[in-house]
Design goal:
The protein has 295 residues and is an alpha+beta fold. The chain is built from 5 helices and 15 strands. It has a 15-stranded antiparallel β-sheet that branches. A hairpin with a 4-residue loop joins strand 14 and strand 15. The longest helix is centred in the N-terminal third of the chain and has 26 residues. The relative contact order is 0.07.
């Protein structure tokens, strides 16, 4: 009987432990814990996240609606994402290895985006790998925090990019590739010294770039517009203090459309340029993003 009673006692203990674990699984405040971890991670990275509604789903998936993400910029902050929805899924196993591996999807700027983040400790360094894919974003909304003077551009942006930040977390040592396409938009108030460009519409702007140790190598930039055709390549040495002051070292092959509304032939004569067999004139573009110059 004692053996039977002892057996029953063990069963009761196991049953009690099972009930405790089941109740813990059901009623544990995972959402609040996940939200506090996200806030802690954001503070380490000096990121500000603003949202109205937070949802959590096991094992580690959460969503924010609507959401705004801001990064430090000098003495202030600059928004890098505003959207109706951002869904984030974190691999729990990566956390045990001192890393964060997360996939995300979002709806914002009139389009969609998705990607992944692989970050190593210390999280504050930003070292890791980042992948982003976007489709049909309104470029005017994306770039509004970065506009120079009265310059404006609109259209629908699609593309993808992969960036690797080295262990030391020095962003100007990052490497990667970016491919982007901007369709059916317009450019307003663009200023290039030496070339009088009116406001114009474009059918497509196609860009392929490589990034290595603070140098953005433009392998291809094709512009098809109602006033000119352009093929641009070269380098941009990124300025860590102010991206708008980054020096330009580009070559632009330009061909006027229709009746030459920008007087490209007159500009070419001034710079002693002659067209190639396809009617393109070759120029240098130097200066900075803030003050580009045609040479």
């Amino acid at each position: 009987m004692k053996g039977n009673h002892g057996g029953f006692s063990i069963l009761y203990v196991l049953y009690g432990l099972f009930l405790f674990c089941l109740l813990l699984l059901i009623f544990f405040p995972y959402g609040r814990l996940a939200e506090s971890l996200i806030h802690r991670f954001s503070e380490e990275r000096k990121i500000t996240m603003r949202y109205d509604h937070f949802d959590f789903h096991l094992p580690l998936r959460c969503s924010f609606q609507p959401v705004e993400i801001l990064l430090p910029n000098g003495d202030g902050q600059i928004p890098i994402y505003r959207g109706n929805l951002l869904s984030l899924r974190v691999s729990p196993w990566s956390l045990f290895r001192g890393r964060v591996r997360a996939d995300f999807q979002g709806k914002g700027y009139g389009g969609t985006l998705s990607g992944s983040v692989r970050i190593r400790r210390p999280f504050s360094s930003g070292a890791g790998k980042y992948f982003l894919q976007v489709a049909q974003l309104r470029i005017e909304d994306v770039l509004s925090p970065f506009y120079l003077r009265d310059f404006k551009i609109d259209g629908r942006l699609s593309g993808e990019g992969t960036i690797r930040v080295p262990e030391e977390g020095r962003y100007l040592k990052a490497t990667g590739k970016i491919t982007a396409s901007l369709k059916n938009g317009s450019v307003r108030n663009i200023l290039i010294q030496g070339l009088d460009l009116p406001d114009f519409n474009f059918q497509a702007i196609e860009v392929k770039t490589d990034l290595r140790e603070g140098v953005l190598r433009i392998r291809k930039c094709h512009v098809a517009s109602d006033i000119l055709l352009a093929e641009i390549d070269g380098e941009v040495r990124l300025d860590a203090r102010d991206i708008r002051e980054s020096p330009l070292n580009l070559t632009a092959h330009l061909k006027a459309q229709a009746d030459d509304p920008i007087n490209l032939k007159g500009v070419a004569r001034f710079f002693h340029k002659t067209p190639d067999s396809k009617g393109y004139y070759s120029f240098r573009i130097q200066g900075t993003f803030r003050n580009p110059q045609l040479l």
